[in-house]
Amino acid sequence: MYYVLAAIGGAVLALAIYILIRHLTLKGRADAIIETAKLEGEKVKQQKILQAKERFIRLKSEHESYISEKNAKMQEQENKLRQRESQLSQQAADLGRKQHELEGSEARLNARIEAIGRKEAECDRLAAQMNKQLETVAGMSVQEARNLLMDNMKAEARSEAQAYINDTIDEARLSAAKEAKRIVINTIQRTASETAIENAVTTFPIENAEIKGRIIGREGRNIRALEASTGVEIVVDDTPDAILISGFDPVRREVARLALHQLVIDGRIHPARIEEIVAKVSAQLEDEILETGKRTCIDLGIHGMSVELVKLIGRMKYRSSYGQNLLQHSREVANIAAIMASELGLNAKVAKRAGLLHDIGKVSDADSELPHALLGAKLAEQYKERPEIVNAVGAHHEEMEMTTLIAPIVMVADAISGARPGARREVIESYIKRLKGMEDLAAAYPGVTKSYAIQAGRELRVIVGAEEVNDEQAVRLSADIAQKIQDEMTYPGQVKITVIRETRSVAYAK
Fold first, then answer.
1. For an engineered disulfide with 392, which of 213, 253, 354, 399 has Cβ 3.0 to 4.6 Å away?
2. Domain 436-501, CATH
3. CATH entry, 322-424, from 3.30.70.120, 1.10.3210.10, 1.20.1080.10, 3.40.50.1820
């Protein structure tokens, strides 16, 4: 028991000693940490104080600089104000001196005005005295003398004016013809021209006789289909490597040429394919006509024109007027009219536009009995062209009263373009009119879908609808057309009328 108690006492004593030592150790560390913290805080405090002092010094320096700058500016403003005040003082002194001088001048001026007034009064008195003496000597009053002098001056001025007018009229008569000739000659010299070429045949080249045989087809069915679709005559003779396309309408000849070209390239040549290609080529040619019209307007510097009028301009490329290509003729008239208008001091752009449009009535599809000039004016008005252009188009053959100065210029330009040597030939125009009249006569009958004059007008082919015209009616139709042509038209030789009626049966496998 004693040993146990001694052991417990020793253990408690050892624990107490350990706790005491541990406490003393921790207290020493805490004191060291606190001391270290105090030193660090003191350092931070010193740094912050130094930073605050530096910032204070910097701010003080900036403030002093700002104050110095403001003081300098204020000093500069003050100097300017003093200088301005000095200038104003000087100006005030100058103004005072000038005012004093003006007052002296005004006094002298008033004195001179009074003297002049006295002299004027004396002059008036002397003039009145002289007038009385003149009235006594002349035996008439001042008013009577004034009226007599005015009458004499009026008569003299009237005589001089009449003489001047007569001289001006004589000079204008002498120089008008000379000036007009000068303008026309200059205009013609500045305009390029072409010679008319009559052409009613297009040559289509082929590579060999095999292709020619395929174009002809079995018993000529391909040729007949092509002629029926295009309205031209295909001439196949012994000419090597060539087929002739004959027709008075250049548009039809071009359609036939392009269709033949695509058929030869494609290789499939039969009636159904021919009709398909002809329809496709016709649509492509319409696009080309529009492009030609646009290019023409761009070349001439004409803008803002209706698309329909642009199409009509493009169609001129495939028409001729007395052998002269209509598009070239219209371009030529436009350039001549513009040059003449410029020479006369008028609007050259309006004249050029009117010159280009003057013959659009010739290419219109409208079925009208109006002359082409009046029809062209109607079309120009329909598509919102300016009134002076409408009048110039309608009056270029004097079928409408001229109301603007552009109208006679267009008429003269048209005459210059058509009357120059080699410009036109009358034969082809009358020939085309006769063939067109023959086609229109046949197309007027009911049931007729197409009519084509071929072989230089010696044959008229009339295509009728199978549903509307039977065989007996087709026979009567050919006789009726022949009789009407005989009664109403003038033509050389005889005309063969061929009425074509084709029955087709179409079915679709679905």
1. 354
2. 3.30.300.30
3. 1.10.3210.10
DSSP readout, 364-390?
A: ------S-HHHHHHHHHHHTT--HHHH
| Exposure on the CB side of residue 174, measured as CA atoms within 13 A | 6
* 105 neighbors 111 (Cβ within 8 angstroms): no
Q: Is this structure's pTM higher than 0.85?
A: no
> In 3D, which of 265, 257, 274, 266 has the Cα closest to residue 220?
274
Q: What is the per-residue pLDDT for 353? A: 93
What are phi and psi for residue 459, nearest 5 degrees? -140, 140
Question: What SS3 state is found at 236?
Answer: coil
Indicate the angle between helix axes 348-357 and 406-419, nearest 10 degrees. Answer: 50
Q: Where are the domains of the chain?
A: 141-189, 199-300, 322-424, 436-501
> Are 322-424 and 436-501 the same fold in CATH?
no
Going 265 to 267 to 270 to 273, the CA torsion angle's sign is negative
Q: What is the DSSP letter of 446?
A: T
* Average pLDDT, consecutive stretches of 10 residues, N- to C-terminus, the chain (510 residues): 78 82 76 83 87 88 89 89 88 85 82 83 79 65 69 75 72 64 57 48 74 80 84 74 77 85 84 88 88 91 89 85 78 90 88 91 75 88 90 88 89 77 49 76 88 79 87 88 84 80 75
Cα within 13 Å of Cα(428), Cβ side: 20
pLDDT at 352: 92
370-to-177, 362, 423 alpha-carbon distances in Å: 35, 11, 26
Nearest by Cα to 263 from 230, 305, 299: 230
Strand, coil or helix: what is 461? strand
pLDDT at 355: 92
Type of residue at 178: K
Picking from 208, 213, 228, the residue whose alpha carbon sits closest to that of residue 269 is: 213
pLDDT in the model for residue 389 = 92
pLDDT attached to residue 354: 92
Q: Judge contact between 246 and 235, C-beta under 8 A.
A: yes
